[in-house]
């Protein structure tokens, strides 16, 4: 029997090491150990074809592993068309400032993406038909469409309501008063959610919009506006007949806004509820911008000090909700003034 040469032994050892390393690599990629290397290598011949579709080698191997063991939730190969459309939407999103107000032309988009102008033009027309982009009839430039913003707004509101629910329930339980989550829409305040107290009679405010000047939450929703803008709003807003006297004056409004900025909440007379007072506090998003307000209708008579205690609780709930939405806390507590300073 012929003895193997040193070169043959070395080659055999190298092959065993190579197979062991390949096995470890496949195990890392999620390939079961029962699969033979020959089976994997046979399937890997499709990698060259899959590369044209944007799939990676690991994706192809994983796909066939799922096929071998009979599982149904196979990883999906990314859609090239969808990916190209998303790239266009990313370009149209621009910088998010005034530079993008006029939109972008087809040639500029194609050049930015390194694609054919005709291909980009066809994709934009398809997106326009779905409302995902819109084209200015004069400049012929494209920008993000109404449907995209509508979907984003619905998603934002859904998450806002979901995250805010326990905070509103906590306030309604603690003080046995109606609690509301409101947002600003133009010069109107829209109620997204309400949590009732134990009272038998309740007005339905969910989905109802009221003039900003007549809503208790209005003070908190526009707390970041400058005083001149508030004066102009009070000057030009026309309210329904007979309700002019129900709205606080300019100086009262400015005082309420100053209190929100310094203490984190406002206590004011409620114009649209049969209540003794209204308490509200602003809710901020991850950027620190006011995105909503928590409001409560206080139906029971309280001293001024007690109202500000309730206001501090509402302000703290709004602050905690803001943190839940991604706002980095600044460490400042919600302040409740002493009775002597009221």
Q: Can you tag this structure with a few keywords?
A:
342 residues; alpha+beta; Arc Repressor Mutant, subunit A; Beta-Lactamase; 3 domains; two-stranded antiparallel ribbon; 12 helices; 8 strands; 48% helix; elongated; disordered C terminus
Question: How does this model look, in words?
Answer:
With 342 residues, this protein is α+β, with helices and mostly antiparallel strands. It folds into 3 domains: 21-60, no CATH class; 80-151, Orthogonal Bundle (Arc Repressor Mutant, subunit A), CATH 1.10.10.10; 155-325, 2-Layer Sandwich (Beta-Lactamase). 48% of the residues lie in helices and 13% in strands. The protein contains 12 helices and 8 strands. A 6-stranded antiparallel beta sheet has the order 5-4-3-8-7-6. A hairpin with a 5-residue loop joins strand 7 (277-284) and strand 8. The radius of gyration is 31 Å and the shape is elongated. The model is unreliable at 20-36, 46-75, 241-245 and 336-342 (pLDDT under 50).
How does the major sheet shape up? 6 strands, antiparallel
Beta-strand content bin? 5-15%
The oligomeric state of the chains shown is single chain
The succession of helices and strands, N to C, reads HHHHHHHEEHEEEHHHEEEH
Query: Termini distance?
Result: 108 Å
Helix content: 40-55%
CATH architecture of the largest domain: 2-Layer Sandwich
What is the overall silhouette? elongated
What is the CATH topology assignment of the largest domain? Beta-Lactamase
- Counting DSSP E segments of at least 2 residues, the number of strands comes to 8
Name of the level-1 CATH class of the largest domain: Alpha Beta
Compute the number of helices.
Answer: 12
- Derived structural class: alpha+beta
Order of strands, main sheet, comes to 5-4-3-8-7-6
Instruction: Kindly report the name of the CATH homologous superfamily of the largest domain.
Output: GAF domain
């Amino acid at each position: 029997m012929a003895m193997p040469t040193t070169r043959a032994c070395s080659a055999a050892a190298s092959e065993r090491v190579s197979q062991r390393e390949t096995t470890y690599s496949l195990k890392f990629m999620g390939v079961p150990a029962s699969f033979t290397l020959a089976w994997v290598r046979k399937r890997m011949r499709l990698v060259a074809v899959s590369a044209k579709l944007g799939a990676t080698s690991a994706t192809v191997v994983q796909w066939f592993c799922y096929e071998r063991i009979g599982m149904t939730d196979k990883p999906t190969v990314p859609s090239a068309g969808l990916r190209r459309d998303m790239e266009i939407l990313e370009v149209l999103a621009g910088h998010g400032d005034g530079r993008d107000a006029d939109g972008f032309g087809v040639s500029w988009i194609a050049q930015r993406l390194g694609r054919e102008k005709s291909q980009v033009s066809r994709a934009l027309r398809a997106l326009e038909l779905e409302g995902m982009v819109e084209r200015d009839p004069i400049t012929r430039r494209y920008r993000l469409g109404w449907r995209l913003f509508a979907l984003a707004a619905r998603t934002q509101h859904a998450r806002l309501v979901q995250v805010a629910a326990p905070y509103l329930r906590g306030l309604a339980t603690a003080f046995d008063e109606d609690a509301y989550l409101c947002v600003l829409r133009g010069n109107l305040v829209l109620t997204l959610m309400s949590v009732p107290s134990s009272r038998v009679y309740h007005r339905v405010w969910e989905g109802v919009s009221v003039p900003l000047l007549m809503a208790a939450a209005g003070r908190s929703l526009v707390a970041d506006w400058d005083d001149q803008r508030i004066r102009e709003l009070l000057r030009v807003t026309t309210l329904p007949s007979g309700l002019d006297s129900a709205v606080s004056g300019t100086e009262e409004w400015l005082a309420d806004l100053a209190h929100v900025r310094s203490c984190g909440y406002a206590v004011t007379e409620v114009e649209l509820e049969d209540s003794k007072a209204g308490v509200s506090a602003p809710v901020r998003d991850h950027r620190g911008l006011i995105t909503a307000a928590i409001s409560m209708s206080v139906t029971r008579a309280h001293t001024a000090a007690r109202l500000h205690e309730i206001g501090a609780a509402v302000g703290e709930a709004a602050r905690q909700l803001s943190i839940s939405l991604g706002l980095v806390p600044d460490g400042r507590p919600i302040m409740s003034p002493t009775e002597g300073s009221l």
